[in-house]
Design brief:
Layout lengths: L5 H10 L2 H6 L5 E3 L2 E4 L11 E4 L4 E4 L5 E2 L1 H9 L3 H12 L11 H24 L5 H9 L4 H6 L3 E3 L5 H8 L4 H6 L3 E3 L5 E3 L4 E7 L5 E8 L9 E3 L15 H11 L2 E4 L2 H9 L5 E3 L7 H8 L4 E4 L5 H16 L3 E4 L8 H8 L1 H9 L2 E2 H6 L8 H17 L3 H14 L4 H29 L9 H21 L3 H6 L10 H15 L6 H4 L6 H13 L8 H35 L5 H16 L9
Parallel strand pairs: 12-13, 12-14, 14-15
Antiparallel strand pairs: 1-2, 2-3, 3-4, 4-5, 6-9, 7-8, 9-10, 10-11, 15-16
């Protein structure tokens, strides 16, 4: 935040009404004075995510996420605090000077964003230049209008091996940054070459409207090269959490209360150009849980409109069950044999497609429709297993029970057998999720504390939390606590950060309303804790003897914990010294003195009448 003046940060905050900002990402419904919706930060079926316009903060009752408008943008888009300020400043039309200096992580991410924007501009320039004639001819032959092409930011990557490389370096970019952005490949012999060559380029945007990756379609008939080349995973692009076209489609999805899923870039462009602006694509990859959760923020209904060929039908089935698990009502729109959404629209028109969408079959009906007519045990078993897979993904117990009963009767299947298979699959799913969580936990980095400190860290957290809570609830307790405890005495970063602000405000005789405190924290953990206290816990006016007692109890506990940690360390040192035949008398004296001090610590020692 040091490189964005505080007055500009405040101006951006004042111009960014939190309900309006959050509504661009989450479907909110007003309930009383506040707004509620599905939390964008964890999977849920009931809306426990709340936005409070009077306090200008958000909080989730389910996962505990909370903060102000900057915190929301940081969590939603994965950007740093300065990036969040810039995103909201751009939205509000407020000019923010470019930073002269960034920290290492922010600087690298900014560089990757800049590299992708630079590449997008370069590809657009080349598309509309003479050398882009082949790409323009292809688009014209596909009957795309210039407006569609410009709206989606399409471009052309020249056939040369270093066209983008040379252009970007002439603009001051470094080759290694371009490589990290997925735009260059490294030669085994040294040097770099363009990843995308002689391809129609489709930029991929994040939810903030920044270009983060590309998909490139070949324009020649060379069968030795793949039809599509896509950006690799980078620090700003994670394909499992991106849906092509969602940046442009999300408001239309909210309005229509349904999203249309197609398979590829041109399918999205075709549908959007014909008025189906609530269309997104998985870009040819299997639908992931993160993508399903992403779409669930905007709607609980999806129509799958994949190609009618066997591969398209298989993709529909794989993606549909992932959506069902997230509580989405999935329907399947069917096309004429041999058609994809693009070709169907061009051949039959928008009215025909609208009819197909309106009469899209519920997923389970689509799966069971062909079951009675199948011949052969293998084909029947495959379809039956597909039905069971979907039933097992339904998270609502009542709904699952109703569906199993209904389809057992409809398909003349033994209901108990169906239940057994569903239970078996659900057990396997739970086991898989538990295994994935264990792998994530095993891969997580942790801070290895020195001997004795681990115990102190665990035990002191709850006490420090209570001290900070007391100070937030009643600002008059800050001076009392500050007189006994320095900022550096707080062991945990988030609580030290909150205490530091409260101490500073008290020193300068500045009093803020509790809900205003949250606007000072870019740190996620600190912001979430403050928002939880502000929203769900009582506040007090005027300091009482009970307030003194609560604070004094905490101060006494912390002092005892500090002494106990040192006592444990001394005992270990004495054992080591005696084992090696050394003199431990000095350590023993310190141990005795600290043990006596610990016995004398009482809460009353901190209270002055």
């Amino acid at each position: 935040m040091a490189f964005i003046p505080e007055h500009l940060v405040e101006e951006v905050r004042q111009a960014s009404e939190i309900v309006d900002v959050v509504s661009e990402y989450v479907t909110l419904k007003k309930r009383g004075q506040n707004y509620f919706g599905l939390c964008p930060f964890h999977a849920e079926k009931t809306g426990s995510f709340s936005v409070h316009p009077d306090k200008q903060i958000f909080h989730c009752f389910g996962c505990g996420a909370g903060g102000n408008v900057f915190t929301f943008i940081m969590k939603e888009t994965g950007v740093s605090f300065p990036e969040a300020v810039r995103i909201l400043a751009k939205r509000a039309g407020i000019a923010i000077p470019e930073p002269d200096e960034l920290d290492g992580g922010s600087q690298e991410r900014e560089a990757l964003f800049y590299a992708c924007e630079l590449a997008a501009d370069f590809f657009v320039q080349r598309l509309w230049s003479p050398e882009g004639e082949k790409a323009r001819a292809y688009l014209e032959q596909r009957e795309f209008r210039e407006k569609d092409i410009r709206d989606f930011g399409l471009g052309y990557a020249p056939a040369e091996w270093s066209a983008l490389h040379d252009y970007a370096l002439s603009k001051g970019m470094k080759a290694d940054v371009l490589q990290k952005a997925g735009l260059l490949n490294k030669r085994d012999s040294g040097g770099f070459y363009d990843r995308f060559r002689d391809r129609l380029m489709f930029p991929i945007y994040n939810l903030s409207g920044k270009v983060i990756a590309f998909g490139g379609r070949k324009l020649n008939g060379d069968d030795s090269v793949p039809k599509y080349v896509n950006s690799p995973e980078t620090d700003i692009y994670h394909k499992s959490n991106v849906l092509y076209g969602l940046f442009q489609a999300r408001d239309h999805i909210r309005d229509a209360k349904v999203a249309v899923f197609v398979e590829g870039y041109t399918d999205v462009m075709r549908l959007v150009s014909e008025g189906f602006r609530n269309t997104v694509a998985t870009s040819g990859t299997a639908l992931t849980e993160l993508q399903a959760r992403l779409i669930r923020r905007y709607t609980d209904r999806v129509v799958m409109l994949y190609d009618s060929d066997t591969a398209g039908a298989a993709a529909t089935m794989r993606g549909a069950d992932v959506l069902v698990e997230q509580g989405v009502d999935v329907r399947v729109g069917e096309l004429e044999e041999g058609e994809d959404p693009d070709s169907f629209l061009r051949k039959y028109g928008a009215d025909a497609l609208q009819q197909r969408l309106a009469y899209a079959l519920p997923l389970l009906d689509y799966k069971t429709r062909s079951l009675p007519h199948l011949r052969g045990k293998e084909a029947y078993a495959e379809k039956l297993h597909s039905l069971i897979a979907t039933l097992s993904r339904i998270q609502d117990g009542v709904e699952r029970q109703e569906k199993i009963h209904f389809y057992a009767e409809k398909m003349k299947i033994d209901e108990e057998m169906l239940w057994d298979e569903v239970r078996r699959l659900r057990k396997l799913q739970r086991s898989r999720r538990a295994g994935e969580q264990r792998r994530r936990d095993a891969g997580a980095t942790s801070i290895m504390l020195p001997a004795g400190k681990s115990s102190y860290a665990d035990k002191s957290r709850v006490v420090e939390e209570e001290l900070v809570r007391i100070m937030i609830q009643n600002h008059e307790t800050v001076a009392f606590i500050r007189s006994f405890m320095q900022v550096t005495d707080f062991y945990h970063d988030s609580y030290r950060m909150i205490a530091s602000l409260l101490y500073e405000l008290d020193e300068n005789n500045v009093r803020l309303e509790p809900e205003d405190l949250i606007h000072y924290f870019a740190d996620q953990e600190a912001g979430e804790f403050v928002s939880k206290v502000v929203l769900h816990e009582p506040r007090f006016e005027g300091i009482t003897q009970d307030d003194y007692r609560r604070a004094a109890d905490c101060l006494a506990k912390l002092q005892r914990l500090m002494l106990e940690t040192r006592i444990d360390e001394l005992r270990e040192q004495i054992r080591d010294r005696e084992k090696s035949g050394g003199d431990s008398s000095e350590l023993a004296t310190e141990l005795y003195e600290l043990t006596m001090q610990r016995k004398q610590i009482k809460a009353e020692n901190f209270i002055v009448e």
